[in-house]
Amino acid sequence: MTANQIALAYLVASVFFILALKGLSSPESARRGNLLGMIGMALAVLTTISIILSGRIEFILLAMVIGASIGTFVARRVQMTQMPELVAAMHSLVGMAAVLIAIAAVNNPAAFGVPDPMPTGNRLELFIGTFVGAITFSGSVIAFGKLAGLGKHFRLFSSAPVVFKGQHLLNLVLALVMIGFGVAFFLATDKAWTPFGIMTAIAFVLGVLIIIPIGGADMPVVISMLNSYSGWAAAGIGFSLNNSMLIIAGSLVGSSGAILSYIMCKAMNRAFISVILGGFGAAEGAAVAGAERKTVRSGSADDAAFLMSNAESVIIVPGYGLAVARAQHAVKEMAQKLAGKGVTVRYAIHPVAGRMPGHMNVLLAEAEVPYDQVFEMEDINSEFGTTDVALVLGANDVVNPLAYEKGSAIYGMPILDVVKARTVLVNKRSMASGYAGLDNPLFYMDKTMMVFGDAKKTVEDIVKALD
Amino acid sequence: MSGTVDPTVINLIVFVLAIFVGYHVIWNVTPALHTPLMSLTNAISSVIIVGAILAAGASALDLGSTMGVIAVALASVNVAGGFLVTQRMLQMFKKKQPKGEKREA
Question: What pTM was estimated for this model as a whole?
Answer without folding.
Answer: 0.88
